[in-house]
Design goal:
9 helices; globular
């Protein structure tokens, strides 16, 4: 399949998935059904018309307001859809039309949902995290068999164990949420599939990004040392830094060490 066509399909799929993720973000933390009731205005309860449910375009046509009561519709809805589409295109460009592509598209989707929920609720819902382990295994184990990548899947399980031990160890000596601990092995499994350099870069990037965000919030007095700052988004962002740039980052660091040793 030509690359432009493949990326276009990925982008359109991302928009559709992003629209569904808006429902997940809104309902899963409250243990509400994802099916019933259908999409509706939270202010007046009016059902969203199909023509207004088109990702991004629907919000633009309505100019960010409900068609029935004119209440404002958060700009976050089209942003989630657009972000998911961008991630789907980037992941597809990274992996191409391969057996492991569906697994990393799924990771991109839950990364968007978990990030938004953690920012809103300081939670990483079990309803998303635990099933994701089964999905990851169901997608990557067949990929390993079909591509003769048994070593990659074993490395994934080993990396999951390493990440779990790392985060549990941090929990013993400092603040670390149980939601973050439950998410860590899942990310370790995905990164381990790619290589140990991805595991190292993903873990380091998570703590670096988390520290930078925390420092920025405190510098602007938006947070204090006692404030709760969700770490899940930093973990997920760090994982995708590793997905896209683990090899060059690892090579840069090794070159830096070599220069200092010399």
């Amino acid at each position: 399949m030509p690359q432009p066509l493949l990326l276009s399909i990925a982008g359109l799929l991302g928009l559709v998935v992003g629209s569904f993720l808006n429902v997940v973000i809104h309902r899963v933390p409250d243990d509400r059904s994802l099916i019933r009731p259908g999409s509706h205005c939270p202010h007046c309860g009016a059902a969203i018309r199909n023509r207004h449910n088109v990702p991004v375009l629907g919000w633009l046509v309505l100019r960010g307001r409900c068609a029935d009561c004119a209440a404002p519709i958060s700009v976050r809805y089209p942003l989630v859809e657009a972000l998911t589409a961008v991630l789907f295109v980037a992941v597809t460009a990274r992996f191409g039309l391969s057996w492991d592509l569906p697994a990393y598209l799924y990771l991109a989707a839950i990364a968007v949902a978990l990030t938004m929920i953690d920012l809103d609720r300081y939670r990483l819902p079990d309803a998303i995290v635990w099933p994701s382990y089964y999905v990851a295994i169901a997608l990557l184990v067949p990929a390993a068999v079909l591509t003769d990548s048994g070593g990659a899947i074993l490395r994934g399980f080993a990396a999951a164990a390493v990440m779990w031990l790392l985060f549990v160890g941090i929990r013993l000596f400092g603040p670390m949420g149980w939601g973050d601990i439950k998410l860590a092995p899942l990310l370790g499994f995905y990164l381990g599939w790619l290589g140990w350099d991805a595991v190292a870069v993903g873990a380091f990037a998570a703590f670096l990004l988390g520290g930078l965000v925390g420092a920025a919030l405190m510098a602007t007095r938006a947070a204090t040392l006692k404030s709760r700052i969700p770490f899940g988004p930093a973990m997920l962002a760090g994982a995708f830094v590793a997905v896209f740039a683990a090899a060059p980052v690892a090579d840069w660091y090794l070159d830096l060490l070599t220069v200092h040793v010399a």
